[in-house]
Automatic annotation (TrEMBL):
This is Glutamate synthase (NADPH), homotetrameric. Residues 18-124 form the Dihydroprymidine dehydrogenase domain. It comes from the Bacteria. GO terms for molecular function: iron-sulfur cluster binding; oxidoreductase activity. Residues 141-448 form the FAD/NAD(P)-binding domain. NCBIfam families: gltA. PANTHER family: GLUTAMATE SYNTHASE [NADPH] SMALL CHAIN, GLUTAMATE SYNTHASE [NADPH] SMALL CHAIN-RELATED. Pfam families: Fer4_20, Pyr_redox_2.
């Protein structure tokens, strides 16, 4: 029985240093710390933690291997269920998933399952020189996966392991979805995403980039081309705006554009890369989820002097991961709670200069269970800004539903599926953010896993 009630702390870059660079903030456990953290695990019968993992990682089993010092075996144990372990170890909202179910959490802190997962994945990538030859029978049947985010990559990996010939079609020039274009380098280094994608390629998955399904090819053309089942995992990449006056001024971005320019187009390495991004001295980020925290911390690293997160609810309701909020606070991001912009005001040249805001107070709980923000009449005030980043959510791109007969979506544009991920069109499955709306990496991966099982069943029955 362990008497250590707190997780072993994660070594991190000093906040004063890290706001000057894009290198990873969390540095990862060394071997000694990983074994010490693994020793906190009680190896509970029935593994309650495992029930909180949407892809079913055998948590006590991999932690036991770390305890025993067999780090490579621990990494391989995770990979039996999880095709992207180094990603999940870094960005999974563990506090709401596996770690929420950990029995140690009742009296102290849960086991640092995500930190251990990251350790085992990184150790395996650095030291496992035995190529994993999976004995699989190739069925010859072709499956198309549309979108290379966590949902698409998970389904592709599992289907390849089952022996299918899988081709992933990705609209952008780099695979990974949000992992590549959205989550910044300082949280999820891009060579780690590439490493996970390379692992899937080693399983036989083919990835075709610069392919916009609905434009380059339609779903019907993919069927004509011999694909026997299709998994649509196109995410929720269409940014929402507030529809307030002044949103078209220069210096106003969607978080999606701002982060894509920085991560995918490497604006932070201008002029080495020829795609700069404009950043002012006073930046306001509207919203309080992970996307808002990433935008605020990116703006600081790009040289903004003052970055303020503006949120219409209070700190308690912030949807971002706790760790991201803590990191943003440590780095000097300021917060303006119970406030929302009503108008953006520009100068003669058309650049945003001021933001008129209104105060809110919290009323009764709404459909989401959170207390509804109610505007306080007459409480308007102005905030000086020269960059505004809208991070209030994203929705699905309608391209595929508009170009595919019989593929039904709901009022929000999310594709309708049954519990197996089957859409209203035979042979077409869907999962991840395109079905649920913007959610999390691990939920998208869980949907990808379910889709692989359903597609296998569908093709066997066919
Ligand atoms: P995506 O990751 O969005 O991938 C969809 C892919 O499909 C994209 O690559 C897109 O280019 C491609 N595509 C779209 N249309 C087409 C088409 N017509 N043809 C071909 N390809 C197409 N979740 C967490 O759990 N933890 C976090 O810390 C976290 N941070 C986040 C930070 C940001 C900035 C953002 C935006 C999201 C964050 N999320 C986080 C949410 C998480 O990333 C998403 O829920 C997850 O990526 C959804 O996976 P997906 O596979 O459904 O879609
Ligand atoms: Fe926990 Fe995510 Fe790993 Fe599952 S994949 S064990 S939820 S960190
Ligand atoms: Fe270990 Fe916590 Fe899972 Fe128990 S619930 S096996 S202590 S990780």
């Amino acid at each position: 029985m362990s008497f250590i009630t707190a997780k072993h702390p994660m070594p991190e870059q000093d906040p004063r240093e890290r706001i000057k660079n894009f290198k990873e903030v969390a540095l990862g456990y060394d071997q000694e710390t990983a074994v010490a953290e693994a020793n906190r695990c009680l190896q509970c019968k029935g593994a309650p933690c495992q029930k909180g993992c949407p892809v079913g990682v055998e948590i006590p089993a991999f932690i036991k291997l770390i305890k025993e010092g067999d780090f490579i075996a621990a990494g391989n144990k995770i990979k039996e269920r999880n095709n992207l372990p180094a990603v999940c170890g870094r960005v999974c909202p563990q506090e709401n998933q596996c770690e929420k179910q950990c029995v140690l959490g009742k009296k102290g802190e849960p086991v640092g399952i995500g930190r251990l997962e990251r350790f085992a994945a990184d150790y395996g990538a650095a030291f496992d020189r035995t190529a994993q030859h999976l004995s699989r029978q190739v069925t010859g049947k072709k499956v198309a996966v549309i979108g290379s985010g966590p949902a698409g990559l998970t389904a592709a990996g599992d289907l390849a392991k089952l022996g299918y010939r899988v081709t992933v079609f990705e609209a952008l020039h780099v695979p990974g979805g949000v992992l590549a274009y959205g989550i910044p380098e300082f949280r999820l280094p891009k060579d780690i995403v590439k490493r996970e994608v390379d692992y899937l390629k080693s399983l036989g998955v083919e990835i075709k980039t610069n392919m916009i399904i609905g434009k380059t090819f339609t779903i019907d053309e993919l069927f004509t081309d011999g694909f026997q089942a299709i998994f649509v995992a196109t995410g929720a990449g269409l940014p929402y705006f507030m529809n307030i006056p002044g949103e078209n001024l220069n210096g106003v971005f969607s978080a999606n554009e701002f982060l894509t320019r920085t991560n995918l187009m490497k604006a932070y390495r201008f002029p080495e890369y020829h795609t700069p991004v404009h950043i002012g001295a006073k930046v306001a980020v509207i919203g309080a989820g992970n996307v808002a925290m990433d935008s605020a911390r990116t703006a600081l690293r790009l040289g903004a002097q003052k970055v303020t997160v503006v949120y219409r609810r209070s700190e308690k309701e912030m949807p971002a991961r706790l760790e991201e909020i803590k990191h943003a606070q440590e780095e000097g991001v300021e917060f303006l709670f119970l406030t929302s912009p009503v108008k953006l005001i520009g100068d003669k040249e058309g650049w945003v200069k001021n933001m008129q805001c209104i105060r809110y107070e919290l009323g009764e709980p709404d459909a989401s269970g959170r207390r509804k923000p109610v505007a306080v009449p007459g409480s308007e005030f102005n905030v000086e800004v020269d960059t505004v980043i809208m991070a209030i959510g994203q929705g699905p791109n309608p391209l595929i539903t508009q170009t595919t007969d019989g593929l039904m979506s709901n009022a929000r544009g999310n594709i309708i599926v049954d519990e197996r991920g089957q859409t209203t069109r035979s042979g077409v499955f869907a999962g991840g953010d395109i079905v649920t709306g913007a959610a999390t990496v691990i939920l998208a991966m869980g949907a990808g896993k379910q889709a692989a099982i359903s597609i296998d069943q569908y093709l066997r029955d066919k």
